[in-house]
Amino acid sequence: MDAAHHEEHPAYPALAALLGNDACRVSVVLCVFHHTVGGDLRRMEHAAVAGEWMRVRELAHRTAWGCRFIGEDRAADALEAVGHSVPDAFVKTFWGAHGALVDVLDRAAAFTDIRDRRHLD
Fold this sequence. Notes:
Elements: H1 2-5, H2 13-18, H3 23-49, H4 53-70, H5 73-84, H6 87-112, H7 114-120
Helix pairs in contact: 3-4, 3-6, 4-5, 5-6
């Protein structure tokens, strides 16, 4: 984690700037993001499997805001597209956004060493 914080360009530049370039605060926000959005992702998956598309749209919209906050605009755009997709394209749009969100969660986990700490608990 230290190497990421000492780079000339931080991994999450907008978030880092917002938090006064405090690496510890960035890490805490990303841990909270990972926990919260990870739960939302599981809820979205369950709702999608159950065919509860309005619930999927609600969660995608909320999660898009979180992604935008940490500077993950590509995933945020993909999640916002879920809410605007037509019925015929909804499932494809959702699963595309799902993949983008999984990538975001993986980056946040790598940045904060979440997976390593989970094994220590």
